[in-house]
Amino acid sequence: MTTLQECRTRDAQDPLRSLRDHFSLPEGVIYLDGNSLGALPRATPARVAQVVQQEWGQDLITSWNKAGWVSLPQRLGNQFAPWIGAGPDQVVFTDTTSVNLYKVLSAAARVARADHPGRTQLVSERSNFPTDLYIAQSVCQEYGLELVLVEPEEIATRLTPQVAVLLLTHVNYRTGAMHDMAAVTAQAHAHGILCVWDLCHSAGAVPVHLLDANADYAVGCSYKYLNGGPGAPAFVWVHPRLADRPGATFAQPLSGWFGHAAPFAFTPDYQPAPGIARYLCGTQPIVSLSALQCGLDIFTAAEPLGGMAALRAKSLALTDLFIALVEEHCAGHGLELATPRDHAARGSQVCLTRGEGLGVQGVGSGAYAIVQALIARGVVGDFRKGDGGKHLDILRFGFTPLYVGFEDVWNAVQHLRQVLESGEWRKPEFNHLNAVT
Ligand SMILES: *Cc1c(COP(=O)(O)O)cnc(C)c1O
């Protein structure tokens, strides 16, 4: 049995404790939703004001050169590359995850068509994030592939010489379950299948080794664990053996001028830039990229404190503690753990499920209302709807080791216990569904 005092001691001994001061979190809030929208870095408002007032307002168009706007996607990519096990000049921050996924899936489909003509399938997980599946549907239509959706335990057996591309999200957004990237990639490559990894719930949250895992393509989000701000530009990585394949045939399909070999030559014909730069499309959102840099700078500050190994150790300690405290203090209220207990298979979040029929007057699960009641108490997690079948309603809690502490975990669980024991979640105001859950 863990006590509040023990949690406080762990905070006092936490080598990453000082990183919390890099964030501006509202008083009285325990923020367990950094896996959906990261918190505001303290440096961001001043940085954004400087870009707007000085670089834009005063220096105007000269800032493309003078302030280095033109290379910002590449510079941020190089700054962050080590955190996902990528090399220099292999990552750019640009566009959204959905758009980048369209680029890399299309590029993979083009390569597969050239190297293994006759392959007919793109395989993904049925419980993948919806936008990933929507984009995959469009790419399949365009390249004449069939989208085959499987359960996680079926993946190994569904990797056959029929398959052109495998698209997986490293850490599942609902359950927090994590794939073994190196093992799955090796299985896929044994059949000549290209692997596309979505790192939205892993970048900055768990160790990622793209080059060591020999992955082919990766995309990921920067407004979650990277704290770049709402709608911050996503990243894209392509293994150099694929990024540098010569010829426009293998370039990604959104052939805009920022991905051209010489954008300011203004030639009429498209010539892809070498390497990852061809994954840029149009003019970049400089204000958003500048805000993102403040988020990435906190990772740079985490390096001398132990880097990803320290972040991962703390993240697992936080999720272990949350699981143990929920089981100790909140038993008997219909909550079940959906996140793997095995560290090797767990991301940086914990999901609790609640079955149908446990809601007010037996309607729904009550999971949404419990989350709303917690938010009203300043404990911010989120709710993800079940599918009415195998996947139950979920209460989701993200643990960002940069700013969440052990006492936060203790307090969050006490609030959850009180919400459940008092029945306050049954109040009508917590049972009214908002547009964004
Ligand atoms: C958050 C998330 C996205 C978001 O895509 P956007 O284009 O930024 O809206 C995509 N895929 C996964 C797996 C995610 O978790």
TrEMBL record:
Cofactor or coenzyme needed: pyridoxal 5'-phosphate
GO terms for MF: kynureninase activity; pyridoxal phosphate binding
Catalytic activity, reaction form: L-kynurenine + H2O = anthranilate + L-alanine + H(+); 3-hydroxy-L-kynurenine + H2O = 3-hydroxyanthranilate + L-alanine + H(+)
Cross-referenced InterPro entries: Aminotrans_V_dom (IPR000192), Kynureninase (IPR010111), PyrdxlP-dep_Trfase (IPR015424), PyrdxlP-dep_Trfase_major (IPR015421), PyrdxlP-dep_Trfase_small (IPR015422)
Keywords, ordered alphabetically: Hydrolase, Pyridine nucleotide biosynthesis, Pyridoxal phosphate
Pathway, per record: Cofactor biosynthesis; NAD(+) biosynthesis; quinolinate from L-kynurenine: step 2/3; Amino-acid degradation; L-kynurenine degradation; L-alanine and anthranilate from L-kynurenine: step 1/1
Entry binding sites for pyridoxal 5'-phosphate: 97-98, 129-132, 169, 198, 201, 223, 257, 283
N6-(pyridoxal phosphate)lysine sites (modified residues): 224
GO biological process: anthranilate metabolic process; L-kynurenine catabolic process; L-tryptophan catabolic process to kynurenine; NAD+ biosynthetic process; quinolinate biosynthetic process
Pfam families in the record: Aminotran_5, KYNU_C
Entry's EC annotation: 3.7.1.3
Any one of the GO CC terms: cytoplasm
Keyword Magnesium (UniProt): no
Annotated signal sequence range: none
Domain Aminotransferase class V: start-end pairs: 78-299
UniProt KW Hydrolase keyword: yes
Primary role: Catalyzes the cleavage of L-kynurenine (L-Kyn) and L-3-hydroxykynurenine (L-3OHKyn) into anthranilic acid (AA) and 3-hydroxyanthranilic acid (3-OHAA), respectively.
NCBIfam families, sorted: kynureninase
Family recorded in the similarity comment: Belongs to the kynureninase family.
HAMAP family, alphabetized: Kynureninase
Subunit structure: Homodimer.
Name listed for the protein in its UniProt record: Kynureninase
Source organism per UniProt: Acidovorax ebreus (strain TPSY)
